[in-house]
Amino acid sequence: MAGRVLLARAIRDFGDGFIAILLPVYLTTLGLSAFGVGIIATLALFGSACLTLAIGLVGARFEARSLLMAAAVLMALTGIAYAATSAYWVLGVVAFVGTINPSGGSASIFVPLEHSLLAGAVTPAQRTHSFARYSLVGALAGALGSLLAAAPDWLQGTGIGTLDALRLMFLAYAALGVLGGAIYWRLERRPATVIAAPPAPLGPSRRIVYKLAALFSIDAFAGGFTVQALLALWLFERFDLSLAAASQFFFCAGLLAAFSFPVAAWIGGRIGLVNTMVFTHIPSSLCLIAAAFATSLEVVLGLLLVRAFLSQMDVPTRSSYVMAVVTPAERPAAASVTAVPRSLAAAASPALAGALFAAGFHAWPLVLCGGLKIAYDLLLLAEFRHVKPPEET
User: Fold this and answer.
1) Strand pairing partners for 63?
2) Which of 20, 169, 216, 369 keeps 20 to 30 A from 380, CA to CA?
3) How far is CA 188 from CA 39, 174, 277, in A?
């Protein structure tokens, strides 16, 4: 089961890897401004939050296989819709109800179901390493996918127009959704958890989950200022970076993020999950703030690569921590309730970042992102340093 979940995530994140880079290119080719790109990113993240909440609340009562297959079908329909239309309002609606992911990371309706499946398949001592593998596979696939963002340039060399080349990439994204659905279809037919569903999605762990959700929303709101689509737009506008160069950079960044996940699991086993989240996150935020004021492209890319290695170490540790501090029956809801405020908060900031870019304040989105993330880290440490998962007590 775990192997198929990892394979399905790899396919999905491969598609997200090139779509996050090509999304602003496609939208600007259609005539949208930076602010319009930000609005689409906001709608995508907000819609993802609503769907994730719905999935999390019913995840303990329905077969995970069926829900994951339905999500894969939605991914395929999203790609087809984006390839078929250029109407702004249609793109906005599809961004809201579909699976377009402007962040380049795994923030989607698939997550609470997959997290619950993985957490239930391993012991507490293995849990963080299991999530590290899950994150590693996704990041490597996303990095490889970012290389495919250069494909429209190759297609144009064969005589295909720019817009048609970009639409072909959205059809490729749809095909990946179909392939992912076929893999989910082969999962074992059983509920997401063998524990009977509780009367309410969240029970004894409700207070902890709500606190974590509130803190995670600060982190996500900050991250929304520099989602991958907007960071790519910033590099395009400030340094006139080519699409091929951007795809190579995001490939390298994805590789560094991927290899940081097993390192995070190793560190987490020695200093604790909360400490790992905090003390790897703060230096990455300082690198982002420094990049906002650097004038050399080489220095900027170097700082962003250091940030890429450090900033994602909290991903497997955060997922493992949430699954550890709740009861097994609460896991689908806990994964959803902690993810949804993240998505909602992240949905607000891309439009603000797009407005700042359009007004010429190119450094501010990066500075706001870094500063808010540091504040989140300090609050998380103060509130949860004494709340230990089972393997740390």
Assistant:
1) 191
2) 20
3) 39, 24, 34
pLDDT at 4: 85
CA 284 to chain centre: 17
User: Closest Cα to residue 351, out of 25, 42, 22?
Assistant: 42
In terms of phi and psi (left: phi > 0; alpha: psi -120 to 50; beta: otherwise), the region of 32 is beta
Query: Are 42 and 193 in contact, with CB atoms under 8 Å apart?
Result: no
Burial zone of 71 (CB within 10 Å; 0-12 exposed, 13-18 middle, 19+ buried): buried
pLDDT (mean) for 386-391: 88
Q: Which of 54-58, 108-112, 113-117 has the lowest mean pLDDT?
A: 54-58
Backbone angles phi, psi at 63, to 5 degrees: -65, 125
DSSP string, 64-127: HHHHHHHHHHHHHHHHHHHHH---HHHHHHHHHHS---TTSS--STHHHHHHHHHHHTS-HHHH
Type of residue at 108? S
Question: Residue 116 is encoded by which pair of tokens?
Answer: 């619950």
Number of H helices and number of E strands within the chain?
16, 0
Please name which of 25, 299, 286, 48 lies closest in space to residue 166, comparing C-alpha atoms: 25
- Per DSSP, what are the bridge partners of residue 191? 63
Q: Which residues, 6+ apart, have CB-to-CB distance to 361 below 8 Å? A: none
Would you call 29 exposed, middle or buried from its count of C-beta atoms within 10 A (0-12, 13-18, 19+)? Answer: middle
Q: At what angle do helices 243-271 and 297-311 cross, to 10 degrees?
A: 40
CATH 1.25.40.70 holds for 2-188+200-392: no
Q: pLDDT by residue (tens digit) across 150-175?
A: 899 888 888 899 899 999 999 999 99
The span from the CA of 108 to the CA of 50, in Å, is 10
Cα separation of 185 and 101, whole Å? Answer: 23
Tell me the HSE value of 70 on the side-chain side, using a 13 A CA sphere: 13
Pairwise CA distance, residues 247 & 145, whole Å: 9
Among 145, 178, 166, 179, smallest CA distance to 15 is for 145
